[in-house]
Prior knowledge:
The termini are close together. By secondary structure, this protein is mostly helical. It folds into 2 domains: about 5-190 and about 250-410, Na+/H+ antiporter like fold (Up-down Bundle); about 190-245, no CATH class. The protein has 20 helices and no strands. It has helices spanning about 5-25, 35-65, 65-70, 75-95, 100-110, 120-130, 140-170, 175-185, 195-200, 210-220, 230-245, 245-250, 255-265, 270-275, 280-290, 295-305, 320-345, 355-360, 370-380, 380-410. It is a multi-pass membrane protein.
Amino acid sequence: MGFLDLFVVALVPVLKLLLVTGVGLFLALDQINLLGPEARNHLNKIVFYVLSPALLVSNLAESITYQSLVTLWFMPVNILLTYIIGSALGWIIIKVTKTPEHLRGIVIGCCSAGNLGNLLFILVPAVCEQPNSPFADSSTCSTDADAYASLSMASASIFTWSYAFAIVSAYAPKSVENNSTRSSEGISQPSLESCTEPLLPSSDSQVSEDSSRQQKLPLTSSNERTKMPFWKKIVQCVKSIMSKIRLKKMFTPSTYAAIIGLIFGIVSPIRKVLVGDSAPLHVIDTSAGLIGQAAIPCRTLIMGANLLKGLRRSEINMLAVIGVVAVRNIFLPLLGVAVVKAAYHFGILGSYSLYRFVLMLQYAVPPAINIGTMTQLFQSGQGETSIIMLWTYAIASISLPLWSTLFMVLVD
């Protein structure tokens, strides 16, 4: 199959995504106001608590078995690698661009957490449905695509609300973070100020004269105070970030749904009762699937409506936005190709091309919409997050078809 044919196969799903996103953006305009802030809030709650969990339970129960889960063990590892590599590149960006401290978590979060949920549910099955698709026959491809997208969404939900949430929380304004913590958990979390300042000095942060003098002592006066080794600073930061991980935030409705869906799919007696046309309680599975089908278009409409905020001005450095765009659309996909190629070379992956295509695609998606949800929780950086989302998704409309085409060539 030629490059142009593959490009058309990759372009059609992205065009579908753009059209639905554009409808959401149109409905959020002040002249229309069908997806205003209040309407988005209510719709987002329905998606978060009902539609997405129903989609996960249905798809995981139908497509994941014990044998397939053993085969797909590398996918959660691959997703974790996207978070680790992305956060490392994001740390480089905030150092180079001197991003204000209260925006550093947003930049790193957008670099680490990708949209591995509804985007893959749209892109991968749509690629399978194309007449020129290089991935086996349409029925087998679509079934596997749902399994890959479901497992990807389940894994990403856990990593986003543990790993990425800890990073965004670490750099959130302390007063806002403490208020949010007290209202949600009744306790306050330890500050990361002691470990972030020596590693990531901020010229624009306002501190008292005493604390400023104390932070400069290790760098200016070795006689009065012994300088802490760099590796100890790294260990201290890792411990503080780990203390920020809140297990309560990890167990979102989607996480519970993922656990339930995996149990239904893996445990054979339960699977026989719920899954399949001859199953006695098949109506429960089909009802959950019917409800879950609304999750993808609703989430995409919300995404388009939220992008409207990105048209406004903000205080974020444009170089930081360019850096995030470069990470998500250039550097991460390149590194993803290297990771998947290395895993395939050492025999970690099987020979199925669609599986390797999805693993590469996980590095090329734009940032997760849940980063915006976190900024709403901390009441800080919402406009800046919208600008990052606007530009990354705009560039992704061009880069995703190109990378998808390249990935098809590489796995063919």
